[in-house]
Design goal:
Number of helices: 8
Strand order of the largest sheet: 1-2-3-4-5-8-13-14-15
Radius of gyration: 20 Å
Order of helices and strands: EEEHHHHHHEEEEEEEEEEHHEEE
Shape: globular
């Protein structure tokens, strides 16, 4: 996942009403390096379409200005560069939740391990195939193990997050969780309007209720093969959602990687070892009550591999669809509550 500067394109499309009083509408545009689309049933909602679209745009801009490592004026970029910032509520909230995921995953999900992603070329700086000594030195100098569980009050510098003064300056990278968080923020706004039939797709998905055909939302799962760079172009299966609020997030190693001496180095870095993962799990699609949790859980699964991921899914109460390679063939596993419709 990448964040890039936001370019706003207004596109509001009313869909055919499907039953008395229903009025489905889609809003779309560009954000976080790609397109986004939100489809809702605005039955009983008096707020105008233009206001809803403008509010979503403003939320996306605020998130970009908070968490984007590609936006040099964002809060996280300024903090990482040594500036003093005034954290907003979003920053404080996602930082605290990320610390919780760090503890829950025994360090597999660590947004404070930004320098590790950088040295492997999967962060915000140029890097590729670092030496063992650089990996070890970087691991020793970064991670949530060095930081406070929440952001102190008032203005802060990166040093204010340290448990022990004098340690290396923290570098945060929220890419593993921020897109899911974004979908949740938009969904929360729609809930505030009284909307409960929705599909929010901003890189990661939040859905609830029924679609314009008045059946459950269906979400495609991409086939995790190298070169499948266009979402929806080559799908493995369709997930049939329940009507309950849920985040649906896929993480995989088939779109961002490089090859050195015939070996593939994927963008999922195990922050506990300091190195890209090497196992047979190709992608993990996880369902959780919200998209940020699903985003973190999908990353967690991709870090720990197939068998451990199955255990996590069962223990934590997630639903998941795991695609893996075995004996040169693509195979799949899904939890009992993950409903699939095959092609």
């Amino acid at each position: 996942m990448k964040f890039k500067p936001i370019a706003v394109v207004i596109a509001i499309l009313s869909l055919v009403s499907c039953s008395s009083g229903d009025r489905y509408v889609s809003y779309s545009g560009y954000a976080q390096g790609g397109t986004w689309k939100v489809t809702v049933n605005r039955k009983g909602v008096s707020v105008k379409d233009e206001v809803i679209k403008a509010t979503i745009d403003s939320l996306l801009i605020e998130i970009d200005n908070t968490f984007s490592g590609y936006n040099k004026s964002s809060l996280v970029s300024r903090l990482n560069s040594g500036e003093t910032i005034e954290p907003n509520d979003m920053f404080r909230d996602l930082y605290s939740r990320s610390y919780g995921w760090f503890l829950q995953s025994d360090g597999a999900v660590d947004v404070a391990a930004g320098p590790l992603f950088d040295i492997w070329g999967f962060g915000f700086k140029e890097g590729k195939f670092p030496s063992d000594s650089l990996v070890e030195a970087t691991m020793a100098a970064c991670g949530f193990k060095m930081l406070k569980p929440s952001v102190p009050e008032g203005s802060i510098s990166a040093a204010d997050l340290l448990l022990e003064p004098g340690e290396s300056q923290p570098v945060l990278n929220f890419n593993a969780v921020a897109q899911g968080y974004t979908s949740d923020v938009v969904a929360d706004y729609l809930h505030s309007l009284g909307i409960h039939d929705m599909l929010v797709d901003i890189g990661e998905i939040f859905c609830e209720g029924l679609n314009p055909r008045r059946v459950q939302w269906n979400i495609g799962v991409d086939r995790p093969v190298d070169g499948n760079d266009t979402p929806g172009a080559d799908m493995q299966a369709i997930h049939v959602c329940t009507t309950s609020p849920q985040g649906v997030v896929t993480s995989g190693n088939y779109r961002k990687f490089y090859v050195v001496d015939g070996r593939k180095y994927a963008h999922t870095v195990d922050t506990r070892t300091g190195r890209p993962v090497s196992h047979n799990l190709l992608s993990a699609t996880v369902i959780a009550p919200d998209s940020a949790t699903a985003d973190a859980a999908a990353t967690w699964c991709m870090v720990i591999g197939l068998e451990a991921a199955k255990e996590v899914v069962a223990r934590e109460g997630y639903e998941a669809y795991l695609i893996y390679e075995e004996d040169g063939e693509m195979r799949e596993w899904h939890s009992d509550g993950f409903e699939l419709r095959q092609f």
